[in-house]
Design a protein that fits this description.
The protein is an alpha/beta fold. The chain contains twelve helices and seven strands. It has a seven-stranded mixed beta sheet with strand order 3-2-1-4-5-7-6. Helix 2 packs across helix 3 and helix 2 packs across helix 4. It is globular and about 50 Å long.
């Protein structure tokens, strides 16, 4: 795998280690896959505080996906940049069709652990390739999950991908995490993805600017660290985690944005 694809092991490690503690996120698939892959995670990537953060991020995406499926039960779910994530099994709401999408070598690795069914499929997708985006399955509505993707795409490529989605689907719900411009610059010096060789990241300062001129609209910003999940930690860990991840400085680096098209 190239350096960008190797970043998938950082959240996988976080979810597996937190799942074993039985807090925030229960993910037996992450535990199983991590045990089999044994990718060397070191430095900042091995921090238990980052693991808690990765698990909380995953849980927030899971809960949002469940809410969107309740609102749009016939929607196609597009998990873009799925890595080795098992969100398709963690969500509780039934879905008509779930499509896990990523680059070819990631999908090849994924096929060792996941099996396609009538309701679940895997597909190679480069979000920078608009022909591939236009070849996604047809549906009136789509719920698009983009966790850990936007920071690897220049804004013009992200806009192109959103435009392709808008042309293909009448109704959209999109959730994606982004670095701010400051966060992308700061990441050159201190970011867990540096441990696997990533040196180029991109940021977004204006959530509405990404979809300017489109019918897709920015809806709201979500918290990565809702109090209900932070409170699942032990009191001492809770206090340290709040210092690291829930202060105002964190929001200047990293944000979670929701978009919609009706």
């Amino acid at each position: 795998m190239n350096e960008v694809n190797r970043t998938l092991f950082i959240p996988l490690y976080g979810k597996a280690s937190v799942s074993r503690k039985n807090v925030i996120l229960k993910d037996p698939d992450a535990e199983r896959i991590w045990a089999a892959e044994s990718f060397p995670v070191q430095g900042r990537s091995a921090s238990k505080w980052l693991a808690y953060n990765m698990a909380m991020r995953a849980r927030v995406f899971d809960d949002w996906t469940d809410r969107m499926l309740e609102e749009l039960p016939d929607a196609l779910v597009l998990h873009v940049g799925c890595g080795l994530d098992s969100r398709c099994r963690r969500v509780t709401h039934p879905y008509r069709l779930w499509l896990d999408c990523d680059l070819p070598d990631v999908i090849a690795a994924r096929r060792k652990y996941f099996t396609e069914t009538d309701r679940y499929r895997m597909q190679e997708l480069d979000a920078c390739d608009l022909q591939q985006a236009r070849a996604l399955p047809d549906s009136v509505a789509a719920v698009v999950v983009m966790e850990g993707v936007s920071m690897y795409l220049p804004e013009e490529m992200l806009r192109g991908f959103f435009t392709a989605l808008q042309e293909k689907y009448k109704t959209l719900r999109i959730l994606m995490d982004v670095y701010t411009g400051f966060g992308a610059k700061a990441s050159k010096y201190k970011n867990p993805v540096n441990d696997v060789g990533v040196t180029q990241l991109y940021g977004i300062d204006d959530p509405g600017g990404v979809t300017e001129g489109m019918n897709i609209r920015f809806v709201q910003e979500h918290s990565f660290t809702p109090e209900s999940l932070v409170n699942e930690l032990k009191p001492v860990e809770r206090a340290v985690f709040r210092l690291l991840f829930t202060d105002r400085a964190y929001g200047k680096i990293y944000r979670l944005l929701e978009y919609a098209l009706d």
